[in-house]
Amino acid sequence: MVAYRRNFVAGGTYFFTVTLRDRRSRLLVERIDDLRAAYDRVRGERPFTTDAIVVLPDHLHCVWTLPPDDADYSGRWKAIKARFTSACRRAGVVLDRDDAGACDLWQRRYWEHTIRDARDFENHVNYIHYNPVKHGHAKVPSGWSHSSFHRFVHDGLLPPDWAVAPDFDVPE
């Protein structure tokens, strides 16, 4: 068995990929309000900053910065996953069960990367914002609603036509 070693840095900034077990599922966008509620509740109980995020049908990517005295991102992910799973069950979503009888909605592990510097941060934020295009969910980053790309445009950090070919008309 592989021994996973996580890097825990109090106040660190991290990139995450969190995935549903069924990669054909669309549950994250179909139940986006439940996901937002779970995410916001955990963030309210155990603060962190969401620097960038994109939610796709079967997985999400985000960059978080934790408070200076805190490195427990794994506890936050456990709570978000549990709250979202519970909300889905309450809504009548039929979920598979594992051998122990627990809901088998999420992949057990997730990808975590500690952001090293400003360039690493920018590369991961760009990856997040381009991901819906990469997966064929949108023709341009602005075409996917479940993304912090829109906040970056609103705040003047990115132009609306970021990562768009010069001859492509960006939808309004």
Salient structural properties:
4-stranded antiparallel sheet, single chain, 172 residues, Alpha-Beta Plaits, alpha+beta
Give me the CATH architecture, please: 2-Layer Sandwich
User: Which structural category fits the helices and strands?
Assistant: alpha+beta
* CATH classification, class level: Alpha Beta
Order of adjacent strands in the largest pleated sheet: 2-3-1-4
Q: Which term fits the overall shape?
A: globular
Low-confidence stretches: none
Quickly count the helices. Answer: 5
> Per DSSP, what share of the residues sits in E-state strands of 2 or more residues?
5-15%
Report the C-alpha radius of gyration, rounded. Answer: 17 Å
Describe it:
By secondary structure, this protein is an alpha+beta fold. The chain has one domain (13-154): Alpha-Beta Plaits, CATH 3.30.70. 34% of the residues lie in helices and 15% in strands. It has 5 helices and 4 strands. The protein has helices at residues 27-30, 32-45, 73-90, 118-134, 149-154; strands spanning 13-19, 49-55, 59-65, 111-114. A hairpin with a 3-residue loop joins strand 2 (49-55) and strand 3. It starts with 12 loop residues before the first strand and ends in an 18-residue tail after the last helix.
